[in-house]
Amino acid sequence: MQIQLRTSAGIRYPQELNDLVVGVFQGMPVYLKDIAKVIDGASEPRTYVRHGWGAAAEFPQHEATPGSFLGSHSGAEFRAVGDSSPAVTIAISKQKGANAVSVSRAVIERAEELRRTILPDDVDVVVTRNAGQTADEKVNELIEALGIAILIVILLLTIGMGWREAFIVAIAVPVVFGLTLFVNLLFGFTINRVTLFALILALGLLVDDPIVDVENIARHFHDRKRASRRIVMEAVAEIRPPLISATLAVIVSFLPMFFITGMMGPYMSPMALNVPVAMLMSMLVAFTITPWLSYHVLKHGYEHGYEHGYEHREDVGEEPSDLGVLSHHAAYDPVAVSKTLLYRIFRPIMAPLLKTRFRAIVFLLLIAGLTFAAMGLGALRMVPLKMLPFDNKNEFLVLLDMDEGTTLERTAAVLQQIEDRIATEPEVIDYTAYVGCPSPIDFNGLVRHYYLRNGTHHGEIRINLVGKKNRNEQSHAIALRLRDPLTEVARNNGGTLRIVELPPGPPVLASIVAEVYGTSETSYRDLLASGRIVKGRLEREPGVVEVDDMTEAPMTRLTFVPDQEKAALAGISVSDIAAAVRTASVGETSGILRAETERRPLEIVVRLPQELRQDPLELSQIAVRGQNQSLVRLTEIGRWQQDRVGQTIYHKNLQRVAYVMAETAGRPPADCIIDVLADEATGQSGRQDVSFVAEGQARRVESRTFLRNGSGIAWGLQEGHTARFSGEGEWQITLDVFRDLGLAFGAAMVLIYIILVAQTGSFLVPVIVMLAIPLTVLGVMPGFYLLNELAASSSGGYADPVYFTATAMIGMIALSGIVTRDSIILVDFMEQAVAAGRPLFDAILESRVVRLRPILLTAGAAMLSAIPVTLDPIFSGLGWSLIFGLIASTIFTLFVIPVTYWLFYAGRTEGIKR
Fold first, then answer.
1. CA 203, CA 214: separation in Å to the nearest integer?
2. Is a pLDDT exceeding 50 seen at residue 264?
3. How far apart are CA 490 and CA 485, in angstroms?
4. Which of 806, 781, 879 is nearest to 257 (CA)?
5. SS3 letters across 383-405
6. SS3 for 559-585, per residue?
7. pTM
8. What average pLDDT does the segment 105-126 reach?
9. What is the pLDDT of residue 332?
10. What confidence score (pLDDT) does residue 539 get?
């Protein structure tokens, strides 16, 4: 018989540690509870995460919307405004290629299941971010906008052409969209926000070819008083050359967007693909489906008519072959045209302009002057320029930075004050605060390295707002309103606060980033001193906020310096001292307790209380056991030495650099940087002996232009030190993007010119046709100026203007191809009319009467389809550019192009009839 012998572990519960014998003194046992306090609880907090409710907590929320509970539990008792509670954030990201909407729904379903089966009743699950729902809402909004745009365009065509003609054009929309999406599938593009914007933009363009096609067919049917396949073919053949050229002009105006570099490239590639593809498919439909459908839908009103003595036959294919002589403008009656209202309106206007060359030249010079004046609105800063506008999100981020070395508790206390202020805002649903750790990373945080914010002096708050359809202000206006009150709370507690919008613009470290460099002999302390000069100058620039540099606050470091001789005599090694200090300050895990009531083993950590660990005098009383078993206090074998922690040194391109970062409020970053650079003083020799910032008041922002920059506050850096603003900030990306857009615009001009030369066989006519392109400036820049006069506002004492952005510039590039269409149609008609024997003056007037309806319909379709685009904060600039540019170009093209054509070709044609 075998008997197993086993010694009991003795300790089964944490409370039993109190009765653990650790020694004997004077014959009596010494228990652990006699010399230490045993605490069964959580480890000392290294981070804090809190969740709280705002004033809009009771606002009705859709399921799985940020700020809503999972499950049927109402959670009303948890919605006390400003009462935050400890929280744990679980972040889940999707894999590349996965559908964000499907992933978020699956995650929420699984979370709801775990809440019912695992979590205690007193633990609630709140959705604080749902990117899948955000993407779904964006797509639904754009699909709704696309549907509204289609209805608006069809209504316009119904009013302008009739319901039958509108029906024919409407058929082209689903056909073209279906073919375009099929091409997207082949090229691997997904249906996303940019793709849908491209389809909305393409809507106003893809109907142009069918509109011109149907309008010309209907006009031929009406003028000839009959309908036949031959007439359809002649009508299509009449407008085919200008239609092809106009379509190709629109296509080539978008193709250069494929070659835009940097962060704008991926955003523009779906637009560069979808619009040209949609235009190609539209032209294909206009030459195939549209003529066939036009004949069958429109022929019923002309079946019993006559045409020049030829009776309509049942077999329309057996018409006399000499009907072909009726093509090329023989189908319209000049006498009937001269009796129209439009003719009587245009003739008194055009006759004085075309009476003498002097008047024509004066008129063109006047238009040129107005165009340059419109361009001057940007140079005079009457139209603010910015890389990207602010979006209207349902969330934003507040960052708090205390001095290095600030304790976790102090940072949490300051952040709590900011939470209390945020909770009172009527638009805030809920917020989540993080101290000592970053919040779940997003794209903006990835670029700005927010994942590194894990020090005890860092804190941040993620704020959820009610839906944008349920509040009066956009998120940017709310952020401007909160900036000063929250900044004051942080400043009163010695901290620095930043409000980060998602996204705040292009993905950069900050809107304004100055990089200060020195020579190889420059000490980093001197480099930081120069950085403080740049910081001081930025702080005095109006509209510049949240100025901060990389200078770290002084941090004290305690180093125990042992007296090696005394330590050796006491039999104590340096490693013994290090182990004792580490145990007292950091703590040491001396064992693991496997309790039956705990799911995980409990660590037994030995350390001094927190209040004793921070006092050098108390640390000096730590006793270390020597080799002779005697206890020796640290104060007897060494001393504590106090010094400063070394400054972090940053490098870029192997050069030491000091960063100065800032944001702007109410002003474009480019304006602020240009003004600061304009005030930089370099002295007569090109360098300054010392760094300085002059005294004085800054000039009023309203009095500054790009022709007269600067605030009047001179500043400069010492010899060998330079400050560059073209590095990590928005300035360099702005320059790069507008450079690429300018090159794309130039490439579009060249390609359009080549197409027109190939069509017309002339080097001069394309120049005349392309005069419609600069005329768009007459609408775009004054339009943005009027928007600022009518729609610009202020919030929290900061201006909230309407910016001319990169997307607005893209709209102007798109206009280069769109407005060329009207000019091509006019010039082609005039040339064919003159070739048919009409005097040039009459051809000019008749071209505007006959072609005015398709010009207005195509321009109107493009403008009205751009209206839904103007409702999106990011792409609104593109929509407004299209609307304002088309209005101005359509109006002025009717006068500028004919006058210019007459000026060059009046002497080469027969006499002008007036």
1. 17
2. yes
3. 9
4. 806
5. CCECCCCCCCCCEEEEEEECCCC
6. EEEECHHHHHHCCCCHHHHHHHHHHHH
7. 0.82
8. 87
9. 62
10. 92
